[in-house]
Design goal:
By secondary structure, the protein is α+β, with helices and mostly antiparallel strands. It has three domains: 122 residues, no CATH class; 104 residues; 169 residues, no CATH class. The protein has seven helices and 23 strands. This is Probable membrane protein YdgA-like protein.
Length: 425
């Protein structure tokens, strides 16, 4: 009997406790989001918490990074309290509900956030299929049902993201654009500062653009995958990405496949975090002082540039390599192949103290070749390449053109033509 009473007491008190924790979590998330980035702000008002649920309203303010202009959107939310967590259901305000109903007459989009007491949150966005036609202009938009999900755990240090969009078609009097089978899966793990680890895959089955008077352009089987891992006991990170495109079709002629690999190795974690933070602060300063005190903005930008320079020095001093170990693009006249890599050695403590310029000991190599017929059949490309051939920077090898280069001692040697480079920072 005593045990049953205790269970009953916990069950009765749980929704109230969950509601209290949910309110605190939401206020904390709002503050963290507003502090972490300058582009949009969350504002919560009228949080009315009851025993089994709560209601609140708010505003999302988005700032244009180019002009500094702000656009605000109101929202409402209904919260249901459970024993171990809450479900927050977001809806547009009544004045926008009628406009949403015009686009989604049968079923409206739904955005929910499910929270758990142990720090896990699951956000889900479901957008039903829609078909809209403008009788006056003849423009139409058809979109299949789409779904997005993000599961955040570890108090915000881990995230699993999934997006699935089967497709959409946009039609106009002179243009038709279709998209088929877009997918995104990504896992993220926070390391330190603004540095995240993880892996992800993005794919698009087809993108087709047909404009009146122009040949139809189609891209088939686009994909991009990447992974970022840590090394040296968390002091450095390695990252690699692969982008592929199976086929491009233009004017009923197809060519492919295309492939590009990118690698970044040995990046110092602390310097990289300092660099990204300084760049974010510079952007925030430009937005916050837009139309204000130009002298204050200049001072903030100079301080951010100084931090960026120091971070770049740290990246170079600890050594890294970056580039594209494989570039392969198919053309109707043959493949374009290449490799571009840049490295900087790790320096000793004495060498770091004497280091005055970023990239002073940078080395690299460049090797790109293309079919001669491509240049001959493309007048615009031929006009750009012809001066390079005349200068000896591009050489002909049989039926192909090739450009080779090396970087060392702040000088770029391209097929025997040495180009001095200015000091960087």
């Amino acid at each position: 009997m005593v045990a049953g009473a205790a269970v009953l007491a916990v069950g009765v008190a749980a929704p109230w406790a969950v509601g209290y924790v949910t309110e605190q979590q939401w206020q904390s998330v709002t503050a963290d989001v507003n502090q972490a980035q300058p582009l949009f702000k969350l504002q919560t008002r009228d949080y009315d918490r009851g025993y089994m649920g709560a209601e609140f309203a708010g505003t999302i303010t988005i700032q244009d990074p180019d002009t500094g202009d702000e656009h605000s959107f109101d929202y409402q939310a209904r919260v249901s309290h459970g024993v171990t967590g809450s479900l927050i259901d977001f809806t547009p305000p009544p004045e926008l509900d009628a406009e949403v109903a015009k686009i989604f007459p049968d079923e409206k989009p739904r955005l929910t956030l499910e929270t758990r007491l142990w720090g896990t949150a699951i956000a889900e966005l479901s957008v039903p299929a829609v078909s809209v036609i403008d009788e006056e202009t003849g423009e139409s938009f058809d979109m299949s049902e789409s779904f997005s999900r993000a599961e955040i755990s570890g108090n915000g240090s881990h995230a699993d993201i999934l997006m699935y969009w089967p497709g959409a078609v946009i039609r106009g009097p002179d243009l038709r654009i279709s998209i088929e089978d877009f997918r995104l899966e990504q896992t993220m793990e926070h390391l330190t500062g603004d540095v995240w680890l993880g892996d992800g895959d993005m794919s698009l089955a087809r993108l087709e653009v047909a404009a009146r008077g122009e040949p139809t352009l189609r891209f088939d089987e686009f994909s991009m995958s990447g992974e970022t891992t840590t090394a040296d006991d968390g002091k450095s990170i390695d990252s690699e990405a692969v982008v592929t495109l199976e086929k491009v079709t233009a004017d009923d002629e197809s060519f492919g496949p295309h492939r590009m690999e990118m690698v970044l190795s040995g990046l110092d974690v602390q310097s990289w975090s300092d660099l990204t933070t300084a760049m974010t602060d510079m952007q925030a300063a430009a937005l916050n002082t837009a139309g204000g005190d130009s002298r204050a903005m200049m001072q903030q930008q100079m301080e951010s540039m100084s931090r960026i320079n120091q971070a770049m020095l740290g990246l170079a001093a600890n050594g890294f390599s970056f580039g594209f170990p494989e570039l392969s693009f198919a053309t109707p006249y043959g493949p374009v192949n290449g490799e571009i890599m840049v490295q900087h050695p790790s320096l000793s403590e004495d060498e770091k103290d004497q280091m005055m310029m970023v990239m002073q000991r940078l080395t690299g190599n460049l090797d790109v070749s293309m079919p001669l017929a491509l240049v001959e059949q493309q007048p615009e490309l031929g006009m750009q390449v012809a001066p390079l051939i005349k200068q000896g920077m591009v050489v002909q090898e049989g039926d192909r053109l090739r450009i080779q280069g090396t970087l060392e001692d702040l000088a770029l040697d391209i097929n025997g033509n040495v180009i001095p480079l200015p000091p960087i920072f």
